[in-house]
Amino acid sequence: MPSPRYWREVPSRFRLEAVRCRRCGKPSFPARTICPACRGTEFEQIGLTREGTVITSTVLHVAPDEFAMETPYAVAIVETPEGARLMAQLVDCEPSEVKPGLPVALEFRLIRQEGHGGILCYGHKAVPAGA
Amino acid sequence: MRDVAIVGVGMTRFGELWETSLRDLFVQAASDALHSARADHLEAVFIGNMSAGQFVGQEHLGPLLVDHLGMVGVAAGRVESACASGGLALRTAFVEVASGMSDLVMAAGVEKMTDTADVTEVLATASDQELEAYHGITFPGLYAMIARAHMEKHGTTEEDLSWVSVKNHRHGALNPKAQFPAEVTLEAVMRSSMVADPLRLLHCSPVSDGAAAVLLCPLDQAKQYTDRPVRIRASGLATGTMALADRKDIAVLDAVQRSAQRAFTMAGLTPADMHLAEVHDCFAIAEICCVEALGLVAPGTGKSAARTGETALGGRIPVNTSGGLKAKGHPVGATGIAQAIELVEQLRGEAGARQVRGARIGLAQNMGGSGASSVVHIFEGS
Amino acid sequence: MAGIVGYGAYIPRKRIKAEEIARQWGRDAASIEKGLLLREKSVPGLDEDTITISVAAGRAALDRAGIDPQRVGALYIGSESHPYAVKPSGTIVVEALGVGPRVHVADFEFACKAGTEAMFVALGLVESGRVEYAMGIGADTSQGAPNDALEFSASAGGAAYLFGREALLADVLETYSYTTDTPDFWRREGEFYPRHGGRFTGEPAYFKHVLAASRGILEKTGLKPKDFRYAVFHMPNGKFPLNAGKTLGFTPQQMETGWLVPTMGNTYSGSSPTGLAAVLDVAAPDDLILITSFGSGAASDSFVLRATALLPERRGRARTVRSMLDHPTRYLTYGQYASYREKIILND
User: A63 and B244 in contact by Cβ < 8 A?
Assistant: First the structure.
């Protein structure tokens, strides 16, 4: 991952910064310039709560090389209380137990790295709430 | 707009073609298309290709490929919409001819996928890099999420998914150009290794090399090239949200719905008018979602259409008579053109053992990413 | 007076039992469990490191303090397993915590003492009035060489302490440090595993410094062991802290709350800070607490703290150490452990 591209996403990856459209109220994560729902351009800055529920999920048994040592791992679409949806790995649980509606917490984790010499790329993963 | 017809077709066999390079794949398909129409010139070439830059380290395909076709000077360029690149190339060529800009245009598609070690990672670049691929999701993974959402909503089962593979392999067994021209049993599909739960290996289209090309000209000039032109009645292109998480209903491919509505409106036809269809079955769940989104089957019945034979050869609306992406192979950029070629052969009555009797009108639907782009073409035989 | 306004800890959820490591190397599990008092240890996932542990602990500390992260003027992380050789852990942690950019940040290393070192410096800056709030974190994902005694103890975890001058959860009454040059344990640049001097790590290293610092702070404060409700000593294994405490005149009852090592392992820079967090999870107002760290090389830092009336009402804002320690999600085989700890050679 080229460093500038990674670095640019720090506000959303590290702090779950998002925006809410002042016109229609739709949350966008990460922040956008134009609201995808109403094309509004006025936004309120919000931070997503570090919790949510699973909308849908899968368990990957075949992964890109970079993630190969982590298989099998669960990936889910999680909805936060603000109504924003994001994709995240679901860890510290049996992948097969991940089901829609599962309450989760979002934790700061190492997501990927560019080989042994490259930068470390962080972000959030989900864990079952209370784990 | 002028009426447009396909007057020539050519395609390579699909498969792991170790001895053939990207440029040679293209030259083979393009030459066959030119020969089939007895054409010795071209005004423009649009090449559908997802990612030669990543697969073989080669960008700038337009000049490279017409150069190797011995046609330096011809207008040419690459067209990209991930796995819908071929369909988008066809639409681009269609517009070029319909508008009166050019009279003889090639729409081609080519992908050389087996030169790359990590195909999974390259394909994942068709998802949102920052929001999806970053987190280690793969294409089978995205479609697996769609499958789970579909299962949750419609009660679709792993067996329903597996019947799609069984049906398409049954069709593919009749296609000499298919990568896997062999039938598979339901048991073999359901026992194959898990790729992304609930999708197993035999629910997934393979990694393939291949190229396909079609020649387009105004319908009123078609007789110069062929006795049996196939008219392109309509072209519909649409997009959906890039990130799966942003879809209102993850089990619905709304870009497919939109592209179909646009095509049906343009053609003045309805799904019931279709005699057959090639749809984008990159994964078994995709065919189930697509036949619903296209309106080929009643809503919620996509899951059982393959099992009941409704979408099989001899059924009410045969889908993927070529074997689909699953059995025919899926060299991503070439797929949209290969679908058009299956329609041309069927509507000309040249499909041999796969022939749908009396087929006169059909559609081809090609999509990119997790369904973020979709293009539908409606064809009519003469 | 300055003191702790927020604290938090994090322990990864995977464990390996001493028995499983012993089985791998043909050792006698019972003698290790008896001799070193180690039953199991935490194991970080491939996605957990000093930075992620620091963020988790730091977020809990901020939650308990309930302050605007922008008011934190300094943040220090002590660890011997900073993920980068060159590039700070702290910059990533402040961004994730929403601290800064007007903040002073540094990574510390002092073997197992780096955590209390970060706390010491953070406290000093707050006391001096240089910054309003300062955070000191101790965290590690330590590696023990395969088939080395340290493999039974080296684990992962950490704790974060936010210091301020108002709304204290614990007053810091006194500090004391004792430092000499004692090469009992080290790791040279580029080496994967640390090396140690075997029994040399005991008397002249651990015990000399822990006892000297603890006696020093008792003398300085005029307090006696019996005045304390709790005592926490650095926990390289189960036995050392109990022996040190006994020598100083502390009872097992005073030590048991912060004595986490039998099921947590040695979290190095996070060891005694996590023990302190476990104490703060249960301490009553006015309870006196002694904590003495140890870092090879070698030194000990001692702190005397007194819990305030605010502590009981704030601790529920984040998870307790016990709740993390007592609910592991998975016990690993040695093969899984070797994979998680990247002990298996792979091509880049």
Answer: no
